[in-house]
Structures are given as C-alpha cells and as structure tokens.
Task: structure prediction
Amino acid sequence: MKLVLLGPSGAGKGTQAKNLSRKYGILHISTGDILRDHMKRQTEIGRKIEHIMDKGKLVSDSIVINMVKERVRMEDAQNGFILDGFPRTLYQAEVLESIVGQFNGVVAINLDDEIIIKRMSGRYSCPECGSVYHVNFYPPKEQGICDVCGSDLIQREDDKETTVINRLKLYHEMTEPIKSFFKHKNLLIEVDGIGEASEVTKNIIEKLGEKA
Ligand code: AMP
Result:
C-alpha cells in the first residue's frame, strides 16, 4: 500500500499518518521530519534550509524531490509507505508517480483556517526526540517536559502564530491546487479533519476500503 496525505500543517496529518502506518504496517515518511533532522545535524542541506523552514516557507522542489527519491528506495520502504508533507507543489505532484511508482490514493484532510490557528498556537515540541504536545488537547504529564525523553519542550519557530498564518496562505496558493490534479486522476479521497483523531482515521479507512 502506498498512500499520500495532503492537508495544511495543523490539520492532523502527522497523527493520521502514524495511525495509518500502524493500521497497514507501512512506513511513515514525513518530509518535514527529514528536513528537521538535517537542521538538527547541521548538514549542508540543514544549514541551507534553516531560514526557509523557520519562516514556514517551502524548501526548493529539487532538495525535497531528491530526499523522497532516496528515502523510498530504502529497504524499509519496500512494503509500502505513507507520504506525509509531500507533494506540496504542483510540480512535486506531477513527478510523484515517476518517483514512487503507482500509488493507492491521495487522502486530503480538510480543516478551516481558524481551527488550525487555534490548534497550532498551543503546540509544543521536543527538540530532542520530535514528540509533539498541545497545552489543551494533548498536554505532557509534567508541564514543559517531554514524556518520552525528559527534555525541555519548546515552541517551534514555525509553530508561532504569524508563521502559521503565512503557511496557511502558502498552502492555499501552492498546495491546494494539487487536489484537483489528483481528482482528475480519480485518486483523491477527501475527509473532514474536525473531531477526534481516531474518528478521522476511521473515516479515512472506510473511504480507502470503498475505493479498493
Ligand atoms: P511539516 O512538518 O510537514 O509541516 O513541514 C515543515 C516544513 O518543512 C514546511 O513548512 C516546509 O518549510 C518544509 N517542507 C516539508 N515538506 C516539504 C515539501 N514537500 N516541499 C517543500 N517544503 C517542504
């Protein structure tokens, strides 16, 4: 099974990708996580993209496409995978099939901007292990401390409100047109991102079943 997850940051893509990767026993590939790992390790790519990521802008197509190409060739991706955060531009969508081969579907999670802004402004992350928390919806057991590794939590530069608003603008301009591209190919599955994450997962699984 090869799936693609589309949706603005804050619509719950990461959580859905984790749930679906568990359900189908396939690898979760998040381009955002791979890019953040480059920044943490201060690789050449990491140093190049730091200022772009912090402002919530898009990293160049060539960097991201090469990264995905390499990742899907690895052994642990041979049983299938779910792509979270890729494609994000029409060009990335156009080359997708040449990179990953045939895939089962593109799941688009839809959610209103206002709800996303509310969700994102309470988000805190662990700089060490990447775990993500929310002050209201998913607080850590001890305030400001990561449950998984005990590190101090931070508000990521790209989770601050002005960055979130810029990112949403960019999503509507650059990424949303991808939906009609896949709709024409009869690959698009649209779901509502509102409500409990487990309900959204159930809805996605049902719709994937209908399509199979
Ligand atoms: P995410 O964790 O998916 O919200 O991604 C975090 C950031 O990584 C985005 O705001 C972009 O700066 C960058 N990024 C992730 N995936 C892509 C992509 N497919 N194309 C361009 N930039 C990306």
